[in-house]
Amino acid sequence: MSKKALCIMSGGMDSTLVAYTMRDQGYEIIALHFNYGQRTVDKELEAFRAITDALGTKERYEIDLDFFKTIGASALTDHSIDVPTQGIEPGVPITYVPFRNGIFLSIATGIAEKEGCDVIAIGVVEEDSSGYPDCRDAFIQSFQEAANLGTKETTHIRIEMPLVHLQKSQIVQEAYMLNVPLDLTWSCYQSEDKACGVCDSCRLRLRGFELAGQKDPIAYAV
User: Fold this and answer.
1) How confident is the model at residue 55 (pLDDT cuts 50, 70, 90)?
2) Cβ neighbours of residue 221 under 8 Å, at least 6 residues apart?
3) Which of 78, 84, 103, 116 lies at 20 to 30 Å from 188 by C-alpha?
4) Which residues constitute the domain of residue 202?
């Protein structure tokens, strides 16, 4: 019986590397993607489908979560709030989507229990991220405990976060080592054509490639 990993995949570089990492460890990959009303929802879904095709994933879930737009409070889901483009600042940025990873992991737990997965894998990055509180190691560990308390006694789920303490440049290097199709990934917060190059996510990605001595294969407007 093969071991299964449910990989939460946004279509971005980090979560794609996580899926390839789990496959490299011998897991059958079940892919999970969320459409939550983010500005680049169509591009991210396109990237997710292309990446899972390249990965050879047999089972994938695409979940719509429109209520995030009702909650608002984030520049990613509320179009009346501008995406910051002046550079990364200290603190929790306005692109933080309230408790997004907690909600994602709750749904992932239900799917993982149904599918008999050993692992839920998520591409959170604590040290070199935008300062999102739901990307912290301690949060994910505490959620794992809650998930196992709230499921059947026969369900034992481990949440893997292999990138949590890596820098973005290390993520780029690892991706090249595993032949991850970085040209299929998308990180930009606000553009679906060419990446803007100036939002926090683009800046982090570009800096990672620069420090890794590599050229980002996607197109940028700036």
Assistant:
1) very high
2) 191, 193, 194, 195, 196, 197
3) 103
4) 4-212
- The closest of 182, 84, 88 to 128, measured between CA atoms, is 88
Looking up residue 106, the CATH number of its domain turns out to be 3.40.50.620
For residue range 115-140, list pLDDT tens digits in order.
999 999 999 999 766 789 999 999 99
Q: Is residue 18 part of a domain?
A: yes
Q: Which two structure tokens, joined as six digits, stand for 50?
A: 């292309």
Could you tell me if residue 222 is inside a domain?
no
Domain annotation covers residue 88: yes
**Structure-block tokens of residue 80:** 């009346």
Mean pLDDT of 183-199: 97
Coil, helix or strand at residue 3: coil
Tell me 83's DSSP state: P
Residue identified by tokens 């011998």 is 26
Mean pLDDT for all residues in the chain:
96
Domain count, the chain: 1
Calpha distance 113→59 (Å, rounded): 15
Are 130 and 200 within 8 A, CB to CB?
Answer: yes
Greater pLDDT, 180 or 129: 180
| Residues 52 and 28: beta-carbon distance below 8 Å | no
What is the C-alpha to C-alpha distance for residues 51 and 152, in angstroms, rounded to an integer?
32
| Residues ≥6 apart with Cβ < 8 Å to 54 | 181, 184
pTM score, whole prediction? 0.96
Q: Say if residues 113 and 155 touch (Cβ distance below 8 Å).
A: yes
